[in-house]
Amino acid sequence: MKTYKIALLPGDGIGRDVTEAAKAVLEKAAARNGFSLVTTSYPWSCDYYLENGSMMPSDGIETLRSFDAILLGAVGWPRKVPDSVSLHGLLLPIRKAFVQYANIRPHRLLPGVQGPLRSENFDILCIRENTEGEYSGAGGRVHQGTDSEVAVETSIFTRKGVERILRFGFEQARARGGKLASVTKSNAQRYSMVFWDETTERLSAEYPDVEVTSYHIDAMAARMVMAPESLDVVVASNLFGDILTDLGAAIQGGLGFAASANINPDRSAPSMFEPVHGSAPDIAHLGIANPIAAIWSGAMMLEHLGETGAAGKVMAAIEATTARGIGASPGRDKTDAITASVLSALD
Amino acid sequence: MKTYKIALLPGDGIGRDVTEAAKAVLEKAAARNGFSLVTTSYPWSCDYYLENGSMMPSDGIETLRSFDAILLGAVGWPRKVPDSVSLHGLLLPIRKAFVQYANIRPHRLLPGVQGPLRSENFDILCIRENTEGEYSGAGGRVHQGTDSEVAVETSIFTRKGVERILRFGFEQARARGGKLASVTKSNAQRYSMVFWDETTERLSAEYPDVEVTSYHIDAMAARMVMAPESLDVVVASNLFGDILTDLGAAIQGGLGFAASANINPDRSAPSMFEPVHGSAPDIAHLGIANPIAAIWSGAMMLEHLGETGAAGKVMAAIEATTARGIGASPGRDKTDAITASVLSALD
Ligand SMILES: CC(C)[C@H](C(=O)O)[C@@H](O)C(=O)O
Ligand SMILES: CC(C)[C@H](C(=O)O)[C@@H](O)C(=O)O
To answer: How far is the CA of B185 from the centre of ligand 1 (A)?
Structure first.
């Protein structure tokens, strides 16, 4: 029997609640589809930081490297550890170290879910650059604490980084119908974003079957709300993709439904799957977090592992659940009840 | 009779159509309310660039300095001149030279206008930093055109710049009901955005009557769509404010309704008023651009000049127009018909 080694990083807050749910669903899907998952759980989190002084052990990255995939809950608990420490100590280093340069986030309404828009027919695949750009972490502060203080934050875009995410976007667009939207702000950011636009233009010659359009981030944000049905695959930088995918989560009914995959397309290191939502400390461990985003992320993991059949069955089980209204309204159903419904739909 | 000197910069594309409409409305409002506007129009634009090699004459800023206010249409016509040239040659230098550090944009539904959200009861005032931050223009490219190319773009935040926009935000919140949302991304941008958050925290001690909450930009974008009624005054950096105000325009029914003011709060130089929309070359001079955003921006100009009564009457005339369905549906009514309706509502 085929066996996959999965590292489970529940992380903080509701991350623990939803990864437990996802694990149960994925294990059942494996059993029913002739493969098995061996999961190893690591307690790396803000609590771990308070005890050990770091978000993960110094060999954390090396430990994770031997797995086939990573399933992560959520990282961060600002009242315990500043986000700027916790995220840079766990989530962001994994994305970078494992060259998970493509962060993929699907945005569509699950059956039975009512979104905030009047428009209901959209199916957007956002692809976010995940390793550099505006979140490079380069910068500093001078004259700190004085009237002359200046803080600088430098976005760094490399040819390799921009080319590979754009190629990934072109490939996804090719596979899905041929429409790609590239998002920049080249009218105001004349170095980074003009570079991105030029690269898009240059690569487009290699993908004559893909229709690519460039949008400014402000116009794209408006478009996602005004005309989401006009979009197909959207590719954007780290920050712009971050913003657009929360917006995508919003139009699909909320963060409880937004799944994501941090993909290393070369498969030179494990990819990581995580719901878009955060750790939501205020509702942690109350048993009311919606596990659907985490389960959907798990389905993306199965897909990535090549278990396409099982992935499809998990998606169908999610859809059967929300179609019955279970887990479809934010805050109404308990984590356990939603999980039980998905599990039974797998029968 | 009180006289105000207004510089008119129609700019490009529909900028010309809508400033003509706004000028007619403002002149009538002046005549009916006992003051007069003397407008001088300057043809600075992409066409001007093609003839003269620059977006405005070298003494353009000095020419504008003597006016009481500036009314601008829109700048940019990418097929003639790259946006990265046109905007940095006209719009952005004015904002910077005249220290128009507060860009104010109101977002609410006009009567008769149907927005894309199911939610209809919101009234948000976005305040965008307008002179530095992510649009500082600092950066460069090395190894250009080679595999090793790197593009960097540096956001620069000064203590003075951050303090003054936050104070402006606190003041506006105090005047409007006491709720301020400050938008950053301090979990991923640890220099600039942590600095902004610290400054917010420090200043909040001076405004104990204002309830201030910090949001991440991604969460705020989602909130504007999921729960816009929960927001009041929102203050954000140049880029984040840019994105949020296009999103604000979207939820208020589209860019045809989104007004803005680039304010120099110290009144050491003229302020500038402009619709949020761009030049829309595809519909330029067809007589179908919606002038409401430009007229609303004109009302903000009257307000700034101290003509509060006239400003209120222009707003009432706009509302009477959209309430009758005129100009309320994107693309349906002609520019002239909408303008005529606003004019007659001023009687
Ligand atoms: C928590 C934060 C650093 C993270 C990000 O911005 O990447 C999150 O918002 C996300 O979208 O995955
Ligand atoms: C045209 C562009 C430079 C401008 C900006 O980003 O400031 C516009 O988008 C706006 O919002 O006023």
So the answer is: 9
